[in-house]
Design brief:
Elements: H1 3-11, H2 24-29, E1 40-44, H3 51-57, E2 61-66, H4 69-78, E3 84-87, E4 91-96, E5 99-104, H5 111-114, E6 119-122, H6 134-144, E7 150-157, H7 172-179, E8 183-192, H8 198-202, E9 209-217
Parallel strand pairs: 1-2, 1-6, 2-5, 6-7
Antiparallel strand pairs: 3-4, 4-5, 7-9, 8-9
Length: 219
Amino acid sequence: MNPDFWHERWQANQIGFHQDEINPYLVRYWPELEIGMAGRVLVPLCGKTRDMIWLRDQGFSVVGIEVSPIAVEAFFAENNLTPAVTRRARHSRWEVDGLELLCGDFFVLDRGDIGEVVAVYDRAALIALPPDIRPRYTEHLAGLLGDATTGLLITLEYTQNEMSGPPFSVSGAEVQQLFADSFAIERLCSTDVLEANPRFREQGVSRLTEQAFRLTVHK
């Protein structure tokens, strides 16, 4: 899945993956990560999620990575923020009030681009990627993080042949397979959410489970 796919989705406003409300798993489980009240949080493939506002309001600075300029512009406009924009070779940097979005390809960014982070939040990155790209994503993510960095990962699991992604189904077993080399993994919850997601039921999905995981880098 190349960047053109996401450019087309945003241009067509096909963004059913976007949530207007703050993610309840973020609110419930972020305090359990015991990160403290300072530091920088990485949000890969962030779209225009308001979860970044919530994280900033908890006292963190936030760096999001997003390939679509439409999404980046919408995030700041919808939150009544006017960022300073700096154009660079591999990305543009949009900054205001503890929020920083890098508009560009996640896979070409390095630790110098994002700075030192204390935590990572993945609500819609891993499940946005098809199976063949997920190992590359987790490897690159691990390379962006320092030792003992903590993360919150949220996934969906359903019978993949009942619906084409994204969002794709990612099982707990696949999370272990993808992350175990670089992260300690703890499953925090597994919840049946099919009744609360009519969009999935309308497409023929017979079961839908949402899971949250704590990740801790152990390089």
